[in-house]
Structure prediction request, 272 residues.
Amino acid sequence: MTQRRAVLALLSAASLPPARAAGPLRVTVPQLLPSSYEHARYFLQLLQLALEKTLASDGAFVIQQYEQPMSSPRQLSELKNDGVINLLWNGSNPKREAELLPVRISLLRDLNDYRVFLIRKDDQQRFGAVRTLAELSQFTAGAGEDWPSTAVLRANGLPVVTSVGYEQLFAMLSARRFDYMPRGVYEAWFEQRQHSDLAIEQSLFLHYNVPFYFFTSRKNPALADRIERGLRMALADGSFDRLFRSIPSFKRSLDEIRAGHRRVLELQLPPN
Prediction:
């Protein structure tokens, strides 16, 4: 009886359809926002490149944007707690690296280290007179509540007004809630075109080192590993560099840095 049951069990198992193969890897990222769309597309293109490099070894993938815009604090919370997104790109600091898993390959090289200012059009003369950080401290910056740059500004004695929402900062600057909005040199020109009542300050750079990485949840090291392997392959075969050089705002930013016509104010990073 036992042997007959065993045979029947084997026959039943053989008649079952084969197990379904696992579906493609789904990578959900925050929705691109209107004021950052031009330069933010680069990160999606770079993610696509990294995943394509690992297609043969790791399988198919789908990249999708979350359907609703999210503030930066919510993005961080969702990623940290395995919520509705499983990847983001952002500047790094010790707190962020303790909570999330960074893919330690710089996505922007040194473009994120140079900051120009969005200002109101009638304020250029005031900023043109600034020679030192002490003089700049008479002005108030605007920044995201949890941006790594916010802590850097404050650590250097620069007053900051913050907002949870990125898009709201432009209206706050126009409404004189603060005096200037430090932006990565690669970000500012597209943002200014979207907010034509504002201007790009013409005489100053802030300079400090803030690496810009892809981040995953600490519970998802497999995704971080796949992206890192793909990025290293893209670096090795030159496709990372080709993509980087193809972005118009990056070329303009490099030209601006190399021109050397701006005064550079060096900022110190806050202690860990």
